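Notebook p. 47: complex prediction with zinc ion.
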Amino acid sequence: MSKCALCGEERELEKSHIIPKFVFRSMKKNSPTGNMRMASQPNRVIQDGDKQAMLCGVCEDRFSQNETIFANKVYHPYHSDNLQVVEYGLWLNYFITSVSWRSLYLDIIGFVSEQNIDIKELDTLIEAEQIMREFLLGKRIDLGHIENHIFFFGPIKEVAGDTSEFELHTAIGGSVVGYTYISHDFDSSYVFLNLQGILIVTILKKAVEEVWKNTLVGENGTFNMEKPNHSVSSPVFNELFALANDLKESRQKISESQKEKIVEGIKKNPERFLKSKAYQRLKDDERIRKN
Ligand SMILES: [Zn+2]
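Predicted complex, structure tokens below:
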């Protein structure tokens, strides 16, 4: 028996996924070799996402319904190129908050135990964590100053400047991350989530000059994928390049024997590889390089 991170009751805790299970299941299914690797440990094939004992069964159940709606209405259609118009209700804010909150909660514990955070910045995070927790428990109906945003990464048409060193399609479309990001320069903070190209940002504290056009998740609304018409300018955007850089570095760390295993896997089933999203992303990166 331990204290549940959400409701605070002393109950038996379950091992919760930080990033929902359906993301990893689909990532594995769509991998060209059927395997997944983590950027931090590129030589190890992983089975499942990061799991932590943090929630009781009751709270796990609170999250599961909206996870299923998100998976069926957004995640799976997006990854099978069938997402056109999404009409959403409260479930979207709830889902995003539930994932961001899990990341934020664990990051606060990390920041405190490593003592590598400014006390004012920590206060901002703790205040946001409380608002999100109360919202998730139904104790409040709004998120106050906290904003959830969602946008979708699509094939890049053209880029300004030399980005040939970055494999953005592969890095963003092929990875899953969630963490708290603090910008010291702009005095702002966020939870940044990338679910294989579905980019979700929870703004905990906004910078003075940020642009978020047509990305805010309200009580209800519509996303039209044919005319997305969104534009974003925010310090958190630098994280996309940080992500591409991490991937590049982790690729360089893959050992020769692991590389051979990957190539063997592809040779065994070349059809699977040629049809995979991973192959499409490599082609998109190549196209940008040539331009
Ligand atoms: Zn609970």
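Notes: The pocket of zinc ion is lined by residues 4, 6-7, 9, 55-56, 58-59 (CB under 6 Å). The two ends are 58 Å apart (CA to CA).
Next step: compare against the earlier run before touching the bench.
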